[in-house]
Amino acid sequence: IETTGISDTELLELLGRIPARRQVILIDACHSGGVGALKGPAGPPAPTNFGNDALDALGRGAGRVAMCSSRAEEVSLALRGMSNSLFTDALLRGLRG
Questions:
Q1: Which pLDDT tens digit goes with each residue over 40-76?
Q2: How many Å apart are CA 9 and CA 24, to the nearest integer?
Q3: What does the alpha-carbon distance between residue 94 and residue 2 come to, in Å, rounded to a whole number?
Q4: Is 61 left (phi over 0), alpha (psi -120 to 50) or beta?
Q5: What is the DSSP string of 12-45?
């Protein structure tokens, strides 16, 4: 970890250099849900129905969303014979439709 990892503080600092108003961060790593610096204070609950109004509001907003492959206490899972982890495999399948 000392030679290949970075702290959540360092990651947040690097992400802060990106001028984009909206960021989507995908983290496929064991214990990735524990990246506390990416989590801000709890805001209003996310809408459960993403109609046009909700999508318009999201488009006007700013901030950062992190999607992590595991909870803070979990490891990411890759099955024998797979090229990627289950998280990345599902993400790629979803992007392909």
A1: 555 555 555 557 776 677 678 888 878 889 888 888 8
A2: 17
A3: 33
A4: beta
A5: HHHHHTS--SEEEEEE-STTGGG-GGG--S--SP
